[in-house]
Amino acid sequence: MKLENEKCRRIGLMQQVTRGINSCVRVEHEALYRLIRTHCPDEKFTTNRNGVFVPLKRLPTHVLQQCCDLIKHGQAQMEKEQTRQQREDNLTHNLKHNKGS
């Protein structure tokens, strides 16, 4: 049963990485690369004009978890920045339209 739970966990982590990787910015991609290189120095990467690819099935579970954590952190930072930008835009809009009041 424990082996089956671990397999399901790994599949879930791989799916999260696969879905989340596209929302990452360059520095996050670089951080993911460094993370994998640090923990799996012998892992073979495939490179082409679209980027660097690694087979997720061969990564240890703890590395997959760290990749997910890094992606989630990046997404949270992006959401914070979008909220900050929206507030700034609203403030600028209000200041422009309330000058004559």
Structure description:
By secondary structure, this protein is mostly helical. The chain has one domain. It has 3 helices and 2 strands, in the order H-H-E-E-H. It has a two-stranded antiparallel ribbon with strand order 1-2. A hairpin with a 2-residue loop joins strand 1 and strand 2 (51-53). The N and C termini lie far apart (69 Å). The model has no long low-confidence stretch (mean pLDDT 91).
Average predicted confidence as pLDDT = 91
Portion of residues within helices: 55-70%
Largest sheet: 2 strands, antiparallel
Order of helices and strands: HHEEH
Poorly predicted regions: none
How are the strands of the largest sheet arranged? Answer: 1-2
Radius of gyration: 20 Å
